[in-house]
Amino acid sequence: MADPSDHQGVNEFQQFDWEVEAALGGRIPPDAGDRLVSMATAVREIREELLLDPAPAVAEAHLAAMLAASCRRSRPRRRVFGFSGRAMGIAAALVAGSAASSVAAGLPWVQRGNQAEASRIAVGGAWGAEDLKPVNAPVSANHHGEEVSVIARTTEEQGRDKGALVSSIARTQGQAHQAMDPNDVAVKGNGKSNGHGKALGHAKPEGKKEAGGKDGLPGNPDPKGNPDPKGNPDPGHKEGRGPVK
Amino acid sequence: MTPATPFPRTLASASAGDEHALAELYRSLAPAVIGYLRGQGAAEPEDVASEVFVSLVRGLPGFEGDEEGFRAWVFTIAHRRLIDERRRLARRLEDPVDPGDLPVTPLDVVNAEDEALARLEGAWMLTRVQDLTPAQRDVILLRVVADLSVDRVAAILGKEPGAVKMLQRRGLARLARTIVPDPVT
User: Fold this and answer.
1) What is the pLDDT of residue B74?
2) What is the CATH number of the domain that holds B76?
3) Do the domain assignments include residue B128?
4) Do A237 and B55 touch (CB under 8 A)?
5) Residue B122's domain spans which residues?
6) How many separate domains does chain B show?
7) Residue A235 and residue B55: Cβ atoms within 8 Å?
8) ipTM of model
9) Which of A102, A101, A69, A71 is nearest to A88 (CA)?
10) Residue numbers in chain A where pLDDT is lower than 70
């Protein structure tokens, strides 16, 4: 341990802070004292033990979750900016299918091959240009039933997974149809929505909810790069539960 | 970020759902995020990290800032998710454990033999970090693992920069004291 008298005329705290920064930056002068050398060693060992690349299966599962979240996040935007409920339904079916595959393979750490395939489907399949139609294209209730029926007949899922998949598609299609229906209360935004009716800009956008978190604890981080822990919204946390004005 | 793909472009592409940009963001952040959660003693660090990255994707369109701000934002999310996980676990705890029944950690007796065994297990310094006070641990991990500045750490933890400096001084000094010098032959 360095003797404080070694740093006469220098504030001990300032010296210590300088040593901390040097240790964190890995800048150890040749004549460094024991304290700085020990701190630098501690910093190096912490990094060696903790800064490790995730296992490939873990990384693939994380990436698949990110891609699925990206697709889910895109759905409301399409509704506003010009894509049909049919395209959203197909995208949801593909995402739900990949999720169901993951469940079947044993989430969260699925087999590498299955997860890669799920990722491929979630990304490649969901964004097919042929699925995109202008917003003013008619949304047919018949199409709703047809698509659900086709997927129900063709999916490789079985039992509970199949039921969950078909239910998810039917629900998504139904919500999309409701959103396109001018008589739907969620579209009118009369305040009676159950929290799912955030179509056409009547609900607060994701990540813009009120300040403050649950249980009286700080809210979630500010997506504008200012990580204020005292009440900024969490990006997309509890998606779809924002209050409807 | 690599020089070939500057951060703003990567961020914009990731925000638009580009798979490669998302993968690049993930690769640049995953070791630190998972390491931070592991250092904090999260029960399932990979699961919590998954929540962090999903939240990141959802919040990307609203993010404005530079690379350092982005990193700070991600670790703010990670810190919040960690608190959420601890709350969840606390609610599930039903069987109280007698402290006397808990296993003795290597830190209780620091000598060359114990240190050598702990080092062989690859968790020597992790054990030391988890023995810090919670506030010291928050600061040390955000400074060392997340590689954030004092001001960013202060903003994440809701503390003054001076308090963060004091905590890092004490925390690092405590860790440094556990370093056993190499024996002189």
Assistant:
1) 96
2) 1.10.1740.10
3) yes
4) yes
5) 101-178
6) 2
7) yes
8) 0.81
9) A71
10) 1-10, 74-148, 150-151, 153-157, 168-169, 171-245
pTM of the model: 0.56
User: In chain B, which residue ranges form alpha helices assigned H by DSSP?
Assistant: 7-15, 19-39, 45-59, 67-92, 112-120, 124-130, 134-144, 150-157, 161-178
Among B11, B19, B47, which would you mutate to test the A interface (most chain A Cβ atoms within 10 Å of its Cβ)? B19
* Position B85 in a domain: yes
Instruction: Please name the residue of chain B whose CA is at the shortest distance from the CA of residue A1.
Output: B177
How many angstroms separate the CA atoms of B112 and A156, rounded?
Answer: 59
- Tell me: do B119 and B84 sit in the same domain: no
In a domain, B132, yes or no: yes
Domain check: are B38 and B79 in the same one? yes
- Give the phi and the psi of residue A244 in degrees, each rounded to 5: -100, 125
Q: Contact B123/A49, CB-based, under 8 Å?
A: yes
Contacts of B120 in chain A (CB under 8 A): none
Q: What is the pLDDT of residues A12-29, one digit of tens each?
A: 777 788 888 888 888 888
User: Where is pLDDT greater, at B133 or A187?
Assistant: B133
Residue pLDDT, tens place only, A164-205: 777 766 766 665 555 454 454 443 444 444 444 444 444 444
